[in-house]
Design a protein that fits this description.
The complex is a heterodimer of chains A (331) and B (346). Chain A is an alpha+beta fold and 331 residues long. Chain A has two domains: 228 residues, Aminopeptidase (3-Layer(aba) Sandwich), CATH 3.40.630; 81 residues, Elongation Factor Tu (Ef-tu), domain 3. Chain A is built from nine helices and 17 strands. In chain A, strands 1, 2, 3, 10, 11, 12, 13, 14, 15, 16 and 17 form an eleven-stranded mixed sheet that branches. A six-stranded antiparallel sheet of chain A has the order 5-4-9-6-7-8. In chain A, helix 1 crosses helix 5 and helix 5 crosses helix 9. With 346 residues, chain B is of the alpha+beta class. Chain B has two domains: 241 residues, Aminopeptidase; 88 residues, Elongation Factor Tu (Ef-tu), domain 3 (Beta Barrel), CATH 2.40.30.40. Helix content of chain B is 25%, strand content 25%. Chain B has an eight-stranded mixed sheet, with helices on one face. A six-stranded antiparallel sheet of chain B has the order 5-4-9-6-7-8. In chain B, helix 1 crosses helix 5 and helix 7 packs across helix 9. Classes of the chains: A alpha+beta (331), B alpha+beta (346).
């Protein structure tokens, strides 16, 4: 699991430019499913065939990033966020672009931290002039942040745990899954960070009976953290609500029942902000049942997202058991 | 080409009340399409088939609604209260002329003259809630004989041309409406595009992409291309900050890589880049990610490959925009050539 998480979090793939991560996940899934396809949005759809109800598992493979908007007269690049990127968290981070060019985020002199906005930031790619910068990189190039995977005691830290850890969970569940009648679509969705777009398109095409998003969620166990029920090491978080979805009660209750029956450590998630692919799936077509299994994570949307490996294992276990269950009673 | 744009720009059509512009467009289209229809939302469709069986369907869209105002009250002295329809900066409104309702009653957004203001009032823009429209009515009764609550108003702006530059209201998105009309007119009698063209002029874009949200289900297009009049930010900056102008006038049509609602599909982006290069048409990217388009609510219905192509316009969402004729011509040229060789995408 550790090796897998390290590999997927360190791979490039901001929203709309998921090619590399898609390729890696394809290789990991090849032996565990019956069919793999890609749609026009860039979603990767891995199908385990069955005669029973259709379950869509959505883990988004895109990550937050940046896009270049302007080359300055001295050869620096202005940029805009791709997804929920905070300007403060960008400062002095390293980035890499779709064509391999690397850069560092710099900041103009500011008097107060509250003045920090994207128009005060720029990317230094080491170009000597505007001309050279243009040869290396133009406007409209996507970039991602760079950081290595590491361990902190029993915790993991990396960039883009959101939501590559969800991708790893889906891969592991596909690997472990025993025989089931359910037809399962493991969908590694695109463009979640810019508005749940891949999942929306994919749910529209697949029209499943149940959608399950696997994603990270907040954690309230750090100094002065906002009050929330979720904590690291307390198990897989079964979502009750976030800003995008109120999980249908029977879906949430079913997930709890499966966890209790299989003695899988779980906690409930109530999130005041943020959304997941489940929100998009839920409102597709005439409405699709959807729920979420989340992994509590500290410092989401920074280059050092921290989570517990035990929670990840619990999530894999619960997802596997849910997928092996007879869901005909809830749909 | 310019006459057409003039008619489109001058026509009334605030979101929710697109009747006049729809009739104007319908009239301009009728000789260039196989059939025309309107749906219950008010979207206008023009179809041009290529005659081949199982041809791919390319939907070209532009929104025909414009930003404006809605009257929501008449004071006892006969002044009008109003709300904004769509995104308008209240600071630009004072003293602007408007036309109200079906009968196009002229009015002005009044304000106290400088003589009657105290010094502190000079320093701040007049807030939205203190603005009103004055039609010169004697009293409430008189005003109500001309105006009803719910009447729409738009800027009173006449289209003008000065050398190679066009001035007018609502280039967002009457420029796009013009481009689509040029696409339908852009063929010789014996020519046809290699795809079926569905031209749609949408309603209520400015209030939340509402007209367009029914299109994917109704028409099931294979590709969508939206044409917009978009922000040109190449205007004086007192701070001289080295920032993106989003787009620049006279630099050609802009192709959107990413905006608030869509990441342009690479296949289409590259197709239009190639088309521009092959035909020596200048082009630029839209270098800002703000603003959304109708594409946002269309492309996620299953993942329909889409792209936005825009003509740069200075001062959109204001009484008078400025657009370079060469940019408009180049956009039409790029659109027509891109569709003529659309086989390369299929």
């Amino acid at each position: 699991m550790k090796k897998l998480i390290k590999e997927v979090v360190e791979t490039f793939g901001p929203s709309g430019r998921e090619d590399k991560i898609r390729e890696i996940i394809t290789k990991k899934m090849e032996n565990h499913v019956d069919e793999i396809k890609e749609d026009s949005m860039g979603n990767l759809i891995c199908i385990k065939k069955g005669k029973g109800p259709k379950i869509m598992v959505a883990s988004h493979m895109d990550e937050i990033g940046i896009i270049t908007t302007h080359v300055t007269k001295n050869g620096f690049l202005r940029f805009s966020p791709v997804g929920g990127v905070s300007p403060v968290r960008c400062i002095y981070q390293r980035v890499i672009f779709e064509n391999g060019v690397k850069g560092v985020v710099g900041i103009e002199p500011v008097k107060k931290l509250s003045e920090i906005e994207f128009d005060k930031l720029y990317i230094d790619i080491g170009a000597k002039s505007k001309k050279e910068a243009r040869e290396m990189l133009g406007e409209g190039f996507f970039g991602a942040f760079v950081n290595n995977f590491d361990e902190l005691n029993d915790l993991y830290v990396a960039k883009s745990m959101d939501d590559r850890v969800g991708c790893a969970v889906a891969i592991k569940a596909a690997e472990k899954l025993k025989k089931t009648d359910n037809e399962i679509y493991f969908v590694f969705t695109s463009q979640e960070e810019v508005g749940l777009r891949g999942a929306k398109a994919s749910a529209y095409n697949l029209d499943p009976d149940l959608g399950i998003a696997i994603d990270v969620t907040g954690s309230a166990d750090t100094p002065e953290a906002k009050k929330m029920p979720m904590k690291l090491r307390n198990g897989v978080a079964i979502k009750v609500k976030d800003r995008s979805v109120l999980v249908p009660k029977k879906v949430k209750d079913f997930f709890i029942k499966v966890a209790e029956k299989n003695k899988i450590k779980y906690q409930l998630e109530v999130l005041q902000y943020g959304g997941t692919d489940a929100g998009a799936i839920n409102l597709t077509k005439s409405g699709i049942l959807a729920g979420v299994l989340s992994i509590p994570t500290r410092y989401i949307h920074s280059v050092s997202e921290v989570l517990s490996k035990d929670d990840v294992q619990n999530t894999i276990d619960l997802l596997t058991k849910i997928l092996e269950s007879d869901i005909s009673k809830i749909i | 080409m310019i006459d057409l744009l003039e008619k489109y720009s001058n026509a009334f059509g605030v979101s929710g009340y697109e009747d006049e512009i729809r009739e104007v467009i319908k009239e301009s289209l009728k000789d260039n399409v196989d059939s025309i229809k309107t749906d219950f939302m008010g979207n206008l469709y023009g179809y041009k088939k290529c005659g081949e069986k199982n041809a791919k369907k390319v939907m070209v869209i532009a929104h025909m609604d414009e930003i404006g105002f809605m009257i929501d009250g008449v004071t006892k002295n006969g002044f009008l209260h109003f709300r904004r329809v769509g995104g308008i900066d209240p600071r630009i409104l004072v003293s602007k002329r408007v036309l109200i309702g079906k009968d196009k009653i002229p009015g002005v957004l009044g304000a106290k003259p400088i003589h009657l203001q105290n010094r502190s009032e000079w320093k701040k823009p007049i807030p939205m809630q203190k603005l009103y429209i004055d039609i010169g009515a004697k009293n409430q009764k008189k005003a109500k004989s001309y105006i009803s609550k719910g009447d729409y108003a738009t800027f009173n702006t006449k289209f003008e041309m000065q050398e190679d530059v066009l001035f007018g209201k609502a280039f967002d998105d009457r420029a796009g409406c013009g481009i689509i009309t040029e696409i339908l007119r852009g063929l010789e009698d014996d020519q046809h595009y290699p795809v079926d063209i569905i031209a749609v002029f949408t309603v209520q874009e400015e209030v939340g992409l509402r007209g367009a949200s029914v299109l994917a289900e109704r028409e099931k297009p294979d590709y969508v291309i939206a044409f917009e009049g978009t922000t040109a930010g190449d205007v004086p900056d007192p701070e001289k900050r080295d920032q993106s102008p989003s787009t620049q006038m006279r630099k050609g049509p802009s192709i959107t890589v990413m905006d608030r609602t869509t990441i342009g599909f690479r296949k289409l982006k590259e197709h239009f880049e190639r088309t521009a290069e092959k035909n020596n048409i200048p082009y630029q990217y839209k270098r800002s990610v703000t603003g959304g388009t109708d594409i946002g609510v269309i492309h996620t219905k299953g993942g329909i490959p889409s792209i936005v192509i825009s003509t740069p316009v200075r001062y959109i969402h204001a009484p008078r925009g400025i657009m370079a004729l060469e940019d408009y011509k180049n956009t039409a040229n790029l659109a027509i050539n891109g569709l003529k060789n659309f086989k390369e995408v299929l």
